[in-house]
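The instructor's notes for this session suggest beginning with a concrete chain rather than abstract definitions. Hand out the sequence below and ask the class to guess, before any prediction is shown, which regions might be ordered.
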Amino acid sequence: MTPWPYPRWIAHRGAGRLAPENTLAAFREGARHGWRAFECDVKLSADGVPFLLHDATLDRTTNARGAAAALAWSELSRLDAGGWHGRGFAGEPPASLAAIAAFVRGNGFALNVEVKPTPGRERETGEVVAEHAVRLWAGASVPPLLSSFQPVALEAVRSRAPQLPRALLLDALRDGWLEQARALDCVAVVAMYALLDAAAVARIHDAGLKALAYTVNDPSVARWLTGNGVDGLISDAVDRFSPASD
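After discussion, reveal the predicted structure:
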């Protein structure tokens, strides 16, 4: 992990504002704008296939309703995950982790996988995503960075694939957050951008970790974070920022 192998600018959920989030269409849109690193959310189907979806339910981003974890991948893969965003994306299917791995590896891109378990499946999701990532990125020079808000999921990732880099996601600097990241052998902390003042970044760096921020869509915020020493910026604004500014 030295030197840090990931680009500074990371496209959130692909290009999740310009195209339907967490689909191959969104990744292609981000790549069209010159982005070389991407973030996505991964959970499990009922039969244990890792696929991309942010929410626990299908309601917001597909033409189906109900819990995503209730359907097998054979059912999920036939859904429309694009029509909600616009007519031009109608028929875009949900993406499997395998499909995203093929896309990013084929193009030499980097990937941050947020392990996003359905409640109650934290350990299982961490284990399965780790096992698939090891296989899908076998021989890759830059492995995926696996992050999660769920320490149990990160523990499961470490148990099944200790060689994969991990990051603790934070929406608050709760008591013991840095100690928890270190106990999980994380290489980075990924925090809501407002939390990452110079002091917080210094603590992260002093612990030997990298500091990444989400979700950075304003140029003045990006400049403030860069001035504070933040190492990575996760953004929806793929059409406003130039990732060539690394």
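Then share the key points. The beta strands are 9-11, 37-44, 50-52, 110-115, 145-148, 166-170, 188-192, 210-214, 232-235. The longest strand covers residues 37-44.
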